[in-house]
Design goal:
Chain lengths: 241, 454
């Protein structure tokens, strides 16, 4: 969604070429392959594990495992899909090995992370406070409170921008399953945030006019979502009867 | 990417164009609705419901707000040293224990791919720990075969015969070892020099003593190797150091043929130096056996209990992947997938390295002998062999390929990679209407028959 189809395909081709070279022992190709995927892989680990230290460990472990087994990548999936599957497995293993307590705001305040001393997290009403991992505490808590299957789904799709079919491949489930999990994950997040007194900022208006310029607004008065500037799926032209 | 109306019918849309129930009944539709990818009629159906159902409308609205919010969350930068940590380990793997552990815990799934690409990757995994483990291969083989022998003491299997080392026991010393007649099969691994006589071995006279004998022999064997070149039996009619391969081979054949393999006979421990030497010196075909344990034997060979055949298949696959050598036709198999090739004599070292690394990685013992392997069915007595398969195999000698090693060009991690090639006829004399000599007859190569026994 955030990447055009064309851009995505080019990236896929580049990955394939890099994998070939890396298999042949080309170190620079390996390095570039790493750099292309490091950030997203790291953020997958970060948002699902809830802290940067575990995330770094898991990311490292996953990349090493992936690159040492480059020969088992058959090209039937995209490289990113294959790689992130390995990250997911590594993260799951990590979660199974240690069941950390849900990260409290208080706990985080005492720890110094890579970004320096953690800022005290204010109430959600003030918006996002940069904490240890860039998330406000209520959002991080809400994420970590999710069942793992839900958490991975919403992180892959809503936070990292994977299309549903790719996310489904990564998690090894059907696309319908992913959507169902996403739906429930989002609802759970909404509930958790409401409980924490965290008001989500209203969605920006851009969502209304991304597609064909027709704002949802009060088209013919048949939108019943309140408030009026709510998320409105774009309508095709001539469809407001 | 519109989802078509008829697809949606299974997902909550009813034939009459309405949605049934509430959002929970059509979660997938709801997700698509929020993304704006539903076709017009389905969208209208959802709209209609939301119009009449404030609860659902509110839920979808909040979801939408959440999604927009989440999509705005920025990526966090990874720690600046993460790249170094990852690439450092990959490109400059630590030799020794750490790399060893990593290599062994990684799943090894051989695939059928082009050999050059394959070989490089395989060796990248294996080589880092091969040097570290070669030193312990002797001990490993000891452990594995010791476990096998303990079982064979009870069952009269012919493992002992299978794993008979190509013992360069000069004919003379056979009698001088102090036992009556031929040594009872207790062959120690000889040192590099073919003519080092076996030291006075304790004969495996009876099965009861065999267990102890193994230990002793093995220990003796290991130490013996270190003393390469030492003549242990100066009084024996040791053949001169420069024994020609042919002589040695025949001496071996005679000796081993004369051996009566009693049940529970001790098993020989192979080690690398001896294998290389034997291979280099062999004048007759050499038989390599990968043996990962007898049926019902769970010792030593780790996970040989379940899927022994699977391990066997894995070894055959590894062999093909690493060398390009394909197994022979099933009719020529000796107790399992069988391969044959001519190995250049001067590359015995590299070849043995390859075999041992395969064996170690699959926890399988590797043995080298100048006698054909004994089939599982046979019992005590002179070594009987699946003669049919073997003679059929030998008939095909001219068809075998050469298996040679060449130095891998940098920047690959590994030093050697193997390839197969068809051999040009050697010594083709146009004058005499003879068949060109086969490579092993010409002396430049050794015919190697590898069988993977389950």
């Amino acid at each position: 969604m955030s990447v055009t189809d064309n851009g995505r395909d080019e990236g896929v081709d580049l990955d394939i070429a890099l994998v070939e070279r890396a298999r042949g022992g080309d170190e620079s190709a390996l390095t570039e392959l790493y750099r292309r995927h490091e950030r997203r892989a790291y953020n997958l680990a970060l948002r699902t594990l809830g802290n940067p230290w575990d995330a770094a460990d898991v990311t490292q472990e996953a990349f090493i495992k992936a690159f040492r087994n480059l020969d088992t990548f058959k090209g039937e999936a995209r490289f990113a899909t294959w790689l992130h599957r390995i990250v997911v497995n590594a993260a799951y293993d990590h979660l199974r090995r240690r069941r950390p307590e849900p990260m409290d705001g208080e706990i985080l305040d005492d720890l110094s992370g890579p970004g320096g001393p953690a800022a005290v997290v204010g109430s959600g009403r003030e918006g996002i406070d940069p904490a240890v991992d860039g998330l406000s505490a209520p959002l991080r808590d809400a994420l970590m409170s999710l069942n793992e299957g839900f958490r991975f789904a919403v992180v892959l799709c809503d936070l990292l921008g994977f299309p549903y079919n790719e996310a489904a491949e990564i998690l090894g489930v059907q696309e319908g399953t992913i959507k169902s999990r996403i739906f429930r994950a989002r609802e759970a997040l909404v509930t958790a945030l409401e409980k924490a007194g965290y008001d989500l900022p209203s969605p920006r208006a851009t969502r209304d006019d991304t597609k064909d310029g027709k704002t949802g607004g009060k088209t013919g008065g048949d939108r019943n979502l309140d408030p009026p500037d709510s998320v409105t799926p774009p309508r095709t032209i001539g469809d407001d009867a | 990417m519109m989802t078509r109306g008829d697809e949606n019918e299974g997902r909550g849309l009813m034939p009459d164009g309405m949605v049934s129930g509430h959002v929970d009944d059509w979660e997938e539709l709801a997700v698509d609705y929020l993304d704006g990818v539903l076709d017009p009629s389905t969208t209208a159906a959802v709209d209609a419901h939301l119009r009449d159902c404030p609860a659902c409308a509110a839920r979808l609205h909040k979801q939408g707000a959440l999604v927009a919010f989440l999509e705005d969350v920025d990526y966090e930068a990874p720690p600046s040293d993460l790249e170094d940590r990852v690439l450092g380990q990959l490109l400059f793997p630590a030799a020794g224990a750490r790399a060893e552990t990593d290599a062994e815990t990684l799943p090894i799934q051989p695939l059928k791919q082009q050999e050059s690409r394959w070989s490089a990757l395989w060796r990248r995994k294996i080589v880092p720990w091969v040097p570290a483990t070669i030193g312990v291969v002797a001990v490993l083989a000891l452990v594995v075969t010791y476990g096998l022998v303990r079982e064979s003491a009870d069952e009269s299997t012919d493992l002992a015969i299978n794993t008979t080392a190509a013992q360069t026991v000069p004919a003379g010393s056979a009698g001088s070892s102090g036992s009556g007649g031929a040594p009872g099969g207790t062959q120690a691994v000889s040192a590099a020099e073919p003519t080092v006589g076996a030291p006075a071995q304790e004969t495996a006279g009876d099965s009861a003593a065999s267990r102890d004998t193994v230990t002793t022999t093995a220990a003796a064997a290991t130490t013996m190797v270190l003393g390469a070149g030492t003549a242990y039996d100066p009084e024996s009619e040791t053949t001169p150091t420069t024994a020609s391969p042919a002589t040695t081979a025949s001496a071996m054949t005679e000796t081993t043929a004369a051996v009566t393999m009693a049940p529970g006979t001790t098993v020989v421990v192979q080690n690398k130096a001896a294998m290389v030497a034997d291979l280099r010196a062999a004048g007759a075909p050499v038989y390599i056996v990968f043996n990962n344990g007898v049926e019902g034997d769970g010792e030593g060979a780790g996970n040989a209990n379940d899927g022994t055949a699977r391990i066997g298949a894995g070894i055959a696959t590894q062999l093909t992947a690493l060398t390009g050598l394909e197994p022979l036709d099933r009719s020529l198999w000796i107790d399992g997938p069988t391969f044959a090739a001519y190995v250049p004599r001067e590359q015995a070292q590299q070849f043995v390295d390859l075999l041992l690394s395969i064996g170690t990685s699959s926890q399988t013992s590797v043995s080298l002998a100048t006698q054909p392997p004994h089939t599982n069915a046979a019992s005590q007595g002179p070594a009987t062999v699946d003669n049919d398969a073997l003679s059929r195999l030998m008939e095909k000698k001219a068809e075998f390929v050469e298996l040679s090693a060449s130095k891998t060009p940098r920047p690959a991690v590994t030093d050697w990679s193997f390839t197969t090639s068809t051999l040009p006829p050697v010594g083709d004399d146009g004058a005499e209407a003879q068949q060109p000599a086969l490579p092993d007859e010409a002396g430049t190569h050794v015919l190697v028959v590898i069988s993977v026994q389950d």
